[in-house]
Design goal:
- By secondary structure, this protein is an all-alpha fold.
- Helix content is 58%, strand content 0%.
- It has six helices and no strands.
Length: 184
């Protein structure tokens, strides 16, 4: 039997040239998105990708297979699966907070609430999450919250901060010097 040639599959994921990132940053700027590419909402990211597609085609570049995922990785965005999982986890944690508030308010289980009561619980949930955040403009005094609510709020805050932490790690790996106070 003849020896079959061994084809090595590269383990490294190839990066796109820097002009792809520049095109994405320019697109985000021109579209009026004042955030980093890593923190854009999925809807805004899709607009940036459409613009990058057009810009790179105008430059005569061929669009390599998987370029969207590679660009997302290079600018610090999670994959679609990671982003979806993060959104699901954040919504689930918000649901736990809402359920706890409904029980605290004596309204019972969320599934059995009238639309009026559900709207009141949703508003209270939003206000509680926003007000008990340490970076709120006027933080509420949440010391009277029970241990379960404090834990739920802490877990929700950790999920929200996870994305920022991932972006900071990426910047540190790239050698960029940053500090939270520099963001102001």
């Amino acid at each position: 039997m003849p020896d079959a040639p061994i084809v090595r599959v590269p383990a490294d994921k190839p990066n796109l040239p820097p002009e792809w990132i520049e095109a994405a940053e320019l697109a985000a700027h021109n579209l009026g998105f004042g955030q980093t590419l890593a923190t854009l909402s999925p809807e805004h990211w899709q607009l940036v990708l459409a613009s990058v597609t057009d810009r790179m085609r105008l430059r005569g570049a061929s669009l390599p297979l998987g370029w969207r995922r590679t660009l997302a990785r290079q600018v610090g965005r999670g994959t679609e699966d990671q982003t979806a999982a993060h959104i699901v986890a954040l919504r689930a944690k918000r649901g736990e907070i809402a359920a706890h508030l409904a029980r605290e308010l004596g309204l019972g289980e969320l599934a059995t609430l009238s639309s009026k009561d559900r709207a009141a619980v949703d508003q209270q949930t939003d206000e509680t999450i926003a007000g008990c955040s340490p970076d709120a403009p006027e933080p509420a005094d949440c010391s009277d919250a029970d241990r379960t609510m404090r834990r739920l709020l802490s877990e929700h805050r950790a999920l929200k901060e996870l994305k920022a932490d991932e972006a900071n790690v990426r910047l540190a790996e790239e050698g960029e010097v940053f500090a939270p106070e520099d963001d102001a």
